[in-house]
Amino acid sequence: MSLKIRAILVLVTGSVLGLTASMGAYVLNERQHRGEIAGESVSVEQVRLLAEVIARIREEYVDVLDDGELIQNAIEGMLQDLDDHSRFLGEEDYEDIRISTTGEYTGVGLDISLEEGEVRVVAPLDDTPAQRAGILPGDVVVSVDDVPVDRQDTEATVNRMRGQPGTLVTLDVVREGAREPLRFALTRSQIHVKTVRAEYLGDGYGYIRLTGFADSTGEELEVAARAIRADQDLRGVVLDLRNNPGGVLDAAIDVADAFLERGLIVRGKGRVREARFEEYANPGEVFSGIEVAVLVNGGSASASEIVAGALQDHQRARLVGEQTYGKGSVQTVMPLSDGRALKLTTSHYFTPSGRSINGRGIEPDFLVSASNPTEQYRGPGSDTAPGDDNQLQEALRVIGFNPVELSRAP
Asked: 283-337 pLDDT, tens per residue?
């Protein structure tokens, strides 16, 4: 995976960070290399047709067009109608993807879904300018620095959120139930995302929150497990995946593996060999013998759903909260020439029981609506006390913890 990064991102490229004429021949040659062309002559004719259209536009369109821009538009047009997650990545976007896998980037800390011309917040990242300012999941960004969102170019909006650390950016968002757009002035910062937060709650029970799935998540989880088990007889743990939009596929496998002693974690089905895979748990469960509840909601997507689905199918954990987002596809980031890349949906994944959650999501075992979505416990340092989070309270009850004093702010 050094050249191809498998990811299961809810977001299009750059959303977390704010996120030639031979083109036809390249596609053709790559497919020939894999031996996947059903009819070579037909494919060649289609490439010729594309080249002819490009030539006509370049020569006869009323305005002079830059050849590079024309080719890029042609590529983006091909990908646009495939699905919401396949994208052509420029140099900056590709760099963003590589940075996001390490969990470090510059921006305001928003996970955003760019769908149907809307810049919709999936979730603000914990302890970031966006989260501290009060931006919520479901908010729709309508302008950045007073520049309205262009429904035909939502990526430009994402790019405007980026900038040097310490600089200001203003976001206007539309929130359901609010009469007027809400305005937020944010200071961009270098965001170092620690994806795992853990706390020992007492009486043999612990709390672990995952904010994303990066390369370091599996290792962070093991460190967190050792910390909350140190000198403690741990009997149960709540794994909080609420508003976790996903990330790297291998990290999801690592997390599920920490809770499973054996069995299938996830199965991928695609056209090429690399897109067909089965991932299994390894012996040696980190949380062996410990009761587990998993918190999920509509912001739990992709990698979160792989973990939740695997633990639910193996009856290793009970899911508490609300129906998940429903993204069941895997994207592969493929380097191209000149520092650019292609992010292409290459697989659909299935839970161990064979469920596809794409467009459906996962139903929790205990359906619990948040009494107040803004009052969600986020681990140590949270403004909300554990006792004020009704979903967390239910998850603790499910694993046998009936706390007397969790209403006091930490």
From this structure: 988 899 999 999 999 999 999 999 999 999 999 999 999 999 999 999 988 898 8
pTM above 0.85, yes or no: no
> What is the distance between the alpha carbons of residues 268 and 291, in angstroms, rounded to a whole number?
28
Q: Helix axis angle, 40-60 relative to 67-80, nearest 10°?
A: 130
Query: What tokens were used for 144?
Result: 């950045």
Q: Within 13 Å of residue 249, how many CA atoms lie on the same side as its CB?
A: 27
CATH number reported for the structural domain that contains residue 142 in this entry: 2.30.42.10
| pLDDT tens-place string over residues 15-31 | 333 331 222 222 222 33
Q: 374 φ, ψ to 5°? A: -80, -15
Q: Rounded distance, CA 179 to CA 190, Å?
A: 33
DSSP string, 168-210: EEEEEEE-TT-SS-EEEEEE-EEEE---EEEEEEETTEEEEEE
As annotated, the active-site residues are 302, 313, 327
Residue 145: give the domain boundaries.
104-192
